[in-house]
Write a structure and sequence with these properties.
alpha/beta; four-stranded antiparallel sheet; 403 residues; binds glutamic acid; Aspartate Aminotransferase, domain 1; Aspartate Aminotransferase, domain 2
Length: 403
C-alpha cells in the first residue's frame, strides 16, 4: 500500500533537540561515554515538597480525570501567579493547563490558524515554533535577528514584516537558544507597533522567566502594554522553574474566546493533563520559592564558568547570555577546517556531528534554531561535567587544521 502522510506533517522536520538526544542515547547504548549539553532541561531533582505532593496525590486516590482545562485549584494558582509575578489581572476562568508548554502552543495555533495565515517567528527560535506553525497549516515568517541586535526583534524589523496575512507573533524571553532577554523598553517598543496592527495576536512564551541573571528584571508583553492584553496569550510552565520537565505541565492565560477554543481542542485530544502532575504543579506554584532563587544563582555561576572556559576555544565567539541556560556560540571561524579524523567542517551541523563523534560532546547546531553557523551549548549539568565538556570542546578546536 502506498504510504500517504498528512501533507503538513510530511513537510515538517522532526524535533532537532530530540534527534540529538536520541543519537546520544544510541551512542551510550553502544558503550560510548558522552557528555550531553544538548538537552534543554534542568539537571536538578524536582524539589522534594513538589514530588511529595505527587506521591500524596496517588496515595489519596487523585488518579482520575480532571476538568479538561485543568483542576480549578491549579487554574486559580496560575491566575494568582500571573497576578503576583507579572502584574496581570487574570480571572482563573481565563486560564488553561496543558500537557507542557508545547501543547499550549500547539493548541493556540491549531485553534486559530487557517491556510495562508502567517506567524512571525524571530530567529534564532526554539526549534519547534516553525514546525508547529507548519503542522497547523500556517506559514512561518522567519525574521533573522543577529548578534548585532543581541538576537532580539526590533520594532523596525517587526513593523517591516507585519502584513495583512499576519495572524501571530511569537516572542520568547529569555530566549531558547540565545539567552537574550527583552527589556521593558524593548517590549514597549514592540507593543507600540502591535497596537497599530489590530489583527495580530502575540504568543509570549515566558517558560524561562525565572532563569534571568545579572539582577535583570523580567517583563512580559501584556504587563508592559496592557492595552494589548486582549490579544496576548501569555504562557508559562513548571518545567524550567521547578525542574519538572517530565511532569509535563504548562499553563497560559489569554482572551476568553481563545482559552475556550483551546479547551475545546484539548477536550478532543488529550483531555486534562495528568492529575498527579497537576497536584504536584499546584504544590510548586503555591509553595516556597527558594528553589527558584537557588537555581538562578547556580545557573549564573555556570554561565560565567562556561564562558570563561570557552574563551580558550579558538574559533568560537560567545555573546553573554542574560537568561535561560544556553550559550549560543558562533562557530563561523571553524568552517572550512579539518578535524584530526579528516572531516571537513562545512556547516554548524558538521561541527556538532564531529564534536559528538570525535570529542564525545553532544550539542545542537544553530541552524536548527534558524540561525547558523552557531552551536547551542546547554549548561544544565554539574560543574565537573561542564568543565570536562568545555575542555573537550577547546581541545577539539585547537586540533583543527586548515584544509
Ligand atoms: N526546550 C528544550 C530544548 O530546547 C526541550 C526539548 C524540546 O522540546 O525541544 O532542548
Amino acid at each position: 500500500m502506498p504510504v500517504t502522510l498528512n501533507r503538513f506533517l510530511q513537510a515538517a522536520r522532526p524535533s532537532a533537540t530530540y534527534e540529538v538526544m536520541d543519537r546520544v542515547a544510541a551512542r551510550r547504548a553502544e558503550g560510548a561515554s558522552i557528555i550531553s549539553l544538548s538537552s534543554g532541561e534542568p539537571d536538578f531533582d524536582t524539589p522534594p515538597h513538589v514530588s511529595e505532593a505527587g506521591i500524596a496525590a496517588i496515595k489519596a486516590g487523585h488518579t482520575r480525570y480532571t476538568q479538561v482545562a485543568g483542576l480549578q485549584q491549579l487554574r486559580e494558582a496560575a491566575a494568582e501567579k500571573f497576578q503576583r509575578e507579572n502584574g496581570l489581572q487574570v480571572d482563573w476562568r481565563n486560564t488553561l493547563v496543558s500537557r507542557g508548554g508545547k501543547q499550549v502552543i500547539f493548541n493556540a495555533l491549531a485553534a486559530t490558524l487557517n491556510e495562508g495565515d502567517q506567524v512571525i517567528v524571530p530567529a534564532p527560535y526554539w526549534v519547534s515554533y516553525p514546525e508547529i506553525v507548519q503542522l497547523c497549516g500556517g506559514e512561518p515568517v522567519i525574521v533573522p535577528c543577529t548578534a548585532h541586535s543581541n538576537f532580539k526583534l526590533t520594532a523596525e524589523a517587526l513593523e517591516a514584516v507585519i502584513g495583512p496575512r499576519t495572524r501571530w507573533l511569537i516572542l520568547n524571553s529569555p530566549s531558547n537558544p540565545s539567552g537574550a532577554v527583552y527589556s521593558r523598553e524593548e517590549l514597549e517598543a514592540l507593543g507600540q507597533v502591535l497596537l497599530r496592527h489590530e489583527h495580530v495576536m502575540v504568543l509570549s512564551d515566558d517558560i524561562y522567566e525565572h532563569l534571568i541573571f545579572d539582577d535583570l528584571e523580567f517583563f512580559t508583553l501584556a504587563q508592559v502594554t496592557p492595552l494589548l492584553a486582549e490579544r496576548v496569550l501569555t504562557m508559562n510552565g513548571v518545567s524550567k522553574a521547578y525542574a519538572m520537565t517530565g511532569w509535563r505541565i504548562g499553563y497560559a492565560t489569554g482572551p476568553a474566546w481563545l482559552i475556550k477554543a483551546m479547551e475545546k481542542l484539548q477536550g478532543q485530544q488529550t483531555s486534562g493533563p495528568c492529575t498527579i502532575s497537576q497536584r504536584a504543579a499546584l504544590a510548586a506554584l503555591t509553595g516556597p520559592k527558594d528553589f527558584i532563587r537557588l537555581s538562578r544563582v547556580i545557573f549564573q555561576q555556570r554561565r560565567d564558568q562556561v564562558l570563561k572556559w570557552l574563551a580558550d576555544a579558538p574559533g568560537l565567539r560567545c555573546e553573554v547570555p542574560q537568561g535561560a541556560f544556553y550559550v549560543f556560540a558562533c562557530c563561523a571561524e571553524l568552517l572550512g577546517k579539518v578535524t584530526p579524523k579528516g572531516t571537513v567542517l562545512r556547516s554548524d551541523e558538521d561541527v556538532v556531528n564531529a564534536l559528538l563523534d570525535e570529542a564525545d560532546v553532544a550539542l545542537v547546531h544553530g541552524s536548527a534554531f534558524g540561525l547558523g553557523p552557531y552551536i547551542r551549548i546547554a549548561y544544565a549539568l554539574n560543574d565537573d561535567s561542564l568543565h570536562q565538556a568545555c575542555d573537550a570542546i577547546v581541545r577539539f578546536c585547537c586540533a583543527l587544521r586548515s584544509a
